[in-house]
């Protein structure tokens, strides 16, 4: 086999997104869709042709006008919003920009978190030597805050509810690693027993609150699957 072919194969991404359910619609009205994204499915297509399958492309097969408002990491499951018209998109996307939406996640982390609740306030930046991973960077990082509280303890794990006050890439994953409690199954940040303790990333976007374009309050919940 020639070197060019070997290089091409080595760069071919491994991606096996779940197919059942193909799309899980939690709510639909004239303005937006609320979706339950499974772990393992990209929110939007990747650059490589093999990464075209995503929540966005699947939804757009049925709703060509649908546009993504918020995203989740491929390995995170839970609530995602897509708009069905420009007005709704502008109104709701602005709430995410202004941080007036409320989001909470459930995570299972390695080890027993000693305090019952807390706030992590650590700036984050991409790790230039280890993309797409991110890291705490006090010199060049963007501000990032996460509130958390303990839900229950396992044998050597802790179930937490996480409240991201900002929306940085990999924020919850890096913040939990920074305090010594990586999320189980995290292929980027966990190692050893914490990596192999779960067959997926144990992080789920369970609750989301925002306001309709007319000002009415909306709240959606998709129970944690783990």
TrEMBL record:
Q: Which SUPFAM superfamilies match?
A: Pseudouridine synthase
- Enzyme's top EC category: isomerase
For this UniProt entry, the molecular function terms from Gene Ontology, in alphabetical order, are:
23S rRNA pseudouridine(746) synthase activity; RNA binding; tRNA pseudouridine(32) synthase activity
Q: Which UniProt keywords apply?
A: Isomerase, rRNA processing, tRNA processing
Q: Which GO terms describe its biological process?
A: enzyme-directed rRNA pseudouridine synthesis; tRNA processing
Task: Please indicate if the UniProt record lists tRNA processing as a keyword.
Answer: yes
By its UniProt entry, which InterPro entries does this protein fall under? PsdUridine_synth_cat_dom_sf, PsdUridine_synth_RluA-like_CS, PsdUridine_synth_RsuA/RluA, RluA_PseudoU_synthase
Q: What does the sequence similarity comment in the record state about its family? A: Belongs to the pseudouridine synthase RluA family.
Q: Where is the Pseudouridine synthase RsuA/RluA-like domain?
A: 31-177
Its name, as the record gives it, is Dual-specificity RNA pseudouridine synthase RluA
Q: Sum up the protein's function in the record's words.
A: Dual specificity enzyme that catalyzes the synthesis of pseudouridine from uracil-746 in 23S ribosomal RNA and from uracil-32 in the anticodon stem and loop of transfer RNAs.
Q: Kindly give the Gene3D superfamilies that the UniProt entry links to this protein.
A: Pseudouridine synthase
């Amino acid at each position: 086999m020639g070197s060019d072919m070997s290089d091409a194969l080595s760069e071919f991404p491994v991606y096996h997104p779940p197919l059942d359910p193909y799309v899980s619609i939690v709510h639909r009205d004239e303005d937006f869709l609320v979706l339950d994204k499974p772990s393992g499915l990209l929110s939007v297509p990747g650059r490589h042709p093999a990464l075209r399958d995503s929540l966005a492309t699947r939804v757009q097969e049925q709703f060509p006008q649908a546009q993504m408002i918020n995203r989740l990491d491929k390995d995170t499951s839970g609530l995602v919003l897509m708009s069905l018209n420009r007005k709704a998109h502008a109104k709701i996307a602005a709430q995410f920009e202004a941080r007036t939406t409320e989001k909470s996640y459930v995570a299972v982390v390695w080890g027993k978190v000693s305090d019952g609740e807390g706030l992590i306030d650590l700036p984050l930046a991409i790790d230039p030597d280890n993309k797409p991973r991110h890291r705490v960077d006090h010199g060049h990082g963007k501000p990032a805050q996460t509130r958390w509280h303990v839900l229950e303890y396992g044998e050597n794990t802790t179930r937490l509810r996480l409240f991201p006050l900002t929306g940085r890439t990999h924020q919850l994953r890096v913040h939990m690693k920074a305090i010594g409690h990586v999320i189980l199954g995290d292929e980027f940040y966990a190692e050893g027993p914490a990596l192999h303790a779960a067959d997926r990333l144990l992080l789920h976007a369970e609750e989301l609150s925002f306001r309709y374009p007319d000002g009415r309050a909306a709240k959606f919940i998709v129970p944690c699957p783990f």
